[in-house]
Amino acid sequence: SPEIRIRELETGTDQRLAEAKDWSYVSLSQDGSTVAFSSDVRNGSAVYSVPAAGGIPKRICAACGRPVEWSADRTKILLDNAGTEHREIQVLDVASGQSKPLLKHSEFGLNMPRLSPDGRLLTFTALRPGRARRIYLVPFTGEPVPEKDWTVLVDGSDLDRQPFWGPSGNL
Fold first, then answer.
1. pLDDT tens, 144-171?
2. How many helices (H) and strands (E) does the chain have?
3. Which long-range contacts does 36-44 make (Cβ < 8 Å, 24+ apart)?
4. For range 130-139, the mean pLDDT
5. How far apart are CA 114 and CA 102, in angstroms?
6. Residue closest to 68 by CA, chosen among 110, 22, 98
7. How far is CA 160 from CA 24, 66, 73, 103, 127, in A?
8. CA-CA distances (angstroms) from residue 25 to 46, 55, 163, 168?
9. How far apart are CA 144 and CA 102, in angstroms?
10. What is this structure's pTM?
11. Are strands 58-61 and 66-70 parallel, antiparallel or unpaired?
């Protein structure tokens, strides 16, 4: 059966972390200590966390979206494909298991949230009609950001998506 595993690159050894269903989504914390995952995301599965060294997965929330990015202090997880219409990026408080909308759009799906190395900025992708994607930049405080405060970084007419930050803070 499918599994969620982590591999130690220096030794080549694998650690089984959890059984997976299909369409799993996995995010490793910035310090490499913890894995967040959801399994069978097509059916809105729960989000779990498990130590990267192994252990028993702990359910953080039920059917709240796909875990994409941890905050540096591991207190929050950014979720995409969230909300009733799957058009939101939400921020999940790990301790309470409560999530709230951070970014949402009435027409376009929002996904792939990525925090800057200093945790002050966030990029994300808006899925527009056809294959077009628009990449935005917003300040990150953990509170909702209205659309008027979104800055367009890439107004692509192609499949631009999945922005990533370099270690120096460059996109």
1. 999 999 999 988 766 666 788 888 887 7
2. 0, 14
3. 36/60, 36/67, 36/70, 36/77, 37/4, 37/67, 38/65, 38/66, 38/67, 39/4, 41/66, 41/81
4. 86
5. 13
6. 110
7. 23, 20, 29, 19, 10
8. 11, 18, 17, 26
9. 4
10. 0.89
11. unpaired
Task: Return left, alpha or beta for 169; rule: phi > 0 is left, psi -120 to 50 is alpha, else beta.
Answer: left
Residue 34 DSSP class: E
Whether 29 shows a pLDDT value over 80: the answer reads: yes
**Residue that is written with structure tokens 């130590």 in the block:** 51
Q: Helical H runs in 35-135?
A: none
**Residue 13 three-state SS:** coil
Give 161's contacts (C-beta < 8 A, 6+ positions apart).
111, 112, 125, 133, 135
The amino acid at residue 165 is: W
